[in-house]
Amino acid sequence: MFPHAKINLGLQVIEKRLDGFHNIVSCLYPIKWCDVLEIIEDNEQRFSSSGLDIPGNPDENLCLKAYHLLKDIFDIPPVCIHLHKVVPIGAGLGGGSADATFTLLGLRKMFNLPLSENEMRRLASKLGSDCSFFIKGKSMMVAGKGDQLEEIELSWPNSHLIIVTPPIQVNTRKAYSMLIPAVPSVNLKNALTSKVSHWSGTINNDFEGPVFQHFPLIAKIKEVLLAQGAIYASLSGSGSSVYGIFKNKRSGRSWFDDDYSVWEQAF
After folding, report:
1. How far is Cα 204 from Cα 220, in angstroms, rounded to an integer?
2. pLDDT tens, 203-251?
3. Is 6 annotated as catalytic?
4. Do 118 and 194 sit in the same domain of this protein?
5. pLDDT score for 216
6. Which residues contact 3 (CB under 8 A, 6 or more apart)?
7. Of 124, 151, 178, which one is at a domain's C-terminal end?
8. Which of 111, 130, 151 is the C-terminal boundary of a domain?
9. Can you give the CATH number for the domain in which 42 is found?
10. Which H/E stretch holds residue 162?
11. Whose CA is closest to 137, among 7, 30, 1?
12. Residue 259 annotated as catalytic
């Protein structure tokens, strides 16, 4: 399986909830930047990884948490899970959430578990606020803490996407602590129906202010993308990745040194 990443088209942080989370409004857009996930039945439960280094205790990986979530319900047998990590970590691209959700999807298929799409979304939301988005993997308006979903159709003919991730990880909890929630003045869903060239100054990511202030290197990426002709550029999520949307195909690899990860995709 190939768990795919996402970008945020706008991100409005409205208020802090009593449960410690925040109410947000955003549009999550699936992209083709993928990890590789393999699950096979085994005699004992195992998890391993390759590719990019995954910080933290491997026994607490979200893929394992997804397995145990289903095992508590269905008593499924042990499996061997191997994750080849490609999508940068702490980058605002939802890679970890995708890995966890695709583990749920893979186990449901492997063991023919009687779970509806809504039930899968409910389970996924227990693993992370944006995990339920990856059940269907289509463009979605999200609200609440990120688990209230509404499909939205978006089309940008002949556009080209470039995503740049510096060698920096932004901690989500710290990022939230640096901003002040506010009621948005723009209806994000309506704004997204306009031409991409009209998005600048209208569709914003509330995390840009504090993240750019604390990490000037990330702010510089947006400056470079706009200088190279992006018709719109933005931080994705609360992480370190910045993306630019271009009218024509460009090669962004030469704009940044080898310490940066660069992903390009045509719409």
Report:
1. 17
2. 999 999 999 999 999 999 999 999 999 999 999 999 899 999 999 888 8
3. yes
4. no
5. 95
6. 34, 35, 37, 87, 95, 98, 99, 101, 102, 134
7. 151
8. 151
9. 3.30.230.10
10. strand 160-165
11. 30
12. no
Q: Which domain holds residue 246?
A: 160-266
pTM, entire model: 0.93
The tally of domains found in the chain comes to: 2
One domain, residues 238 and 127: no
For residue 251, the domain's CATH number is: 3.30.70.890
How would residue 56 be classed by pLDDT, with cut points 50, 70 and 90? Answer: confident
172 plus 147 within the same structural domain: no
Residue with tokens 């901003």: 179
pLDDT tens digits along 122-179: 999 999 888 999 999 899 999 988 888 999 988 777 889 999 999 998 888 888 888 8
> Average pLDDT in the 10-18 region?
90
Which residue in the list 35, 99, 130, 206 is annotated as catalytic? Answer: 130
pLDDT for position 156: 76
| Same domain (yes/no): 118, 11 | yes
Residue 106 host element (H or E): helix 95-110
Q: What is the DSSP string of 49-103?
A: EEES---S-GGG-HHHHHHHHHHHHH-PPPEEEEEEE-SPTTSSS-HHHHHHHHH
Name the residue with tokens 């393999």. Answer: 38
Query: Is residue 20 pLDDT above 80, yes or no?
Result: no
